[in-house]
Here is the input.
Amino acid sequence: MRPFRHVVRQKRKDTFMLKRRPLAPMLLLPLLLAACSGSGEQQGPPSLPVTVSAPMVKDITEWDNFVGRFEAVNSVEVRPRASGYLTQAHFAEGQYVTKGQLLFTIDARPTQAVLDQARAQVARAEAALVNARTELARSENLAKSDAASQEEVEQRRAAYRAAQADLAATQASVRAAQLNVGFTRVTAPISGRVSQRLVDAGNAVAADQTVLTTIVSTNPIHFSFQGSEASLLNYERRGDKLMGAPVRIRLQGDDDYRHTGKIDFIDNALTSGSGTITVRAVVQNPGGKLMPGLFGQLQLAAAPAAPQIVVPETAIVTDAARRLVYVVGKDGVVQPRPVELGILVDGLRVIRSGLDAKEQVVINGLQRVRPGQKTEVQQGKFDDQGRVIDPKKPAAAPANAGASAPAAKPAAEAAPAKGAAQ
Here is the structure.
């Protein structure tokens, strides 16, 4: 019986040892994973450098933006100066007319009859004057021989003077009638573009009341806009002169500011309701393409071009309400620098304050920057459009050289991989 028990115990012991053996590898597995993870962190890829460059100093003309509309320098409502029936219109609607060009004619027969009557009265007055002159001469001769009294001579002289006055009055009536006849020809008071005909032929028109059409001048043309009180005060603090300041204007749909002019009028008071002041610029319009009523965006240069510190727009970082740039010191430590921004010119942002022209600004790799820590840097630069230029990028090379370079790079990168596999 003893041998049997020994065999049973030996089998139980062997079974227990078989159940315990798989536990050893399982206990060692976390240790192996931890060792592998630790070695992975130590052998990770090195951090990439950031590109830095000194700011660019460039002559910049700062432009302030305003929205306004074009207005005609001269705008006239054409009204007749004589009453009557309209007989004909002598222009094409919308065409350019010159000063003095005939636009309308009014029936001149009634005024011509008045003129003829006035001329007849002039003839009668001339005849009366000749008779009065003759009687005065006769009376003066008779008075010399005491055949006529002095009283009679004075009466003849008074009659002669009255005849002269009557002639002058009738002549004035003729001139007035001639004006009325001339007023039946309605001419353009200014040169410009004429509007549509508002009264057709056959209708009666009243002198100085009926509007026949309108004319607006085309060259030059005004551009009127509203400036804020804050802008006006800023110009005065800087000592800028608004009168005569250059402006440039862009129409809706245009890509550039192709229309130029200068300020020629500033109102003498601000509007009490909106707190704005009316400012006006004069713009040359030789082709007449700019029409009154067109809206446009105006840029005002209140000061001449001056050297300004500029950096690429992509180098600006927003931190809540602040605007920052990252500056790398001589010790390689990155520090955030609050700056005051100016205008944006072709991808370059003007820095009004907070940055020196000799400091090194991070212009590429902002996502790898850790403020307050050292970082690896490489020198770079940017062009006039704010585009960052990679200093390591080769210049334009022949086609053969460009084709062989990419083929060599993968081979060089494959060597470490092969060594690692070994």
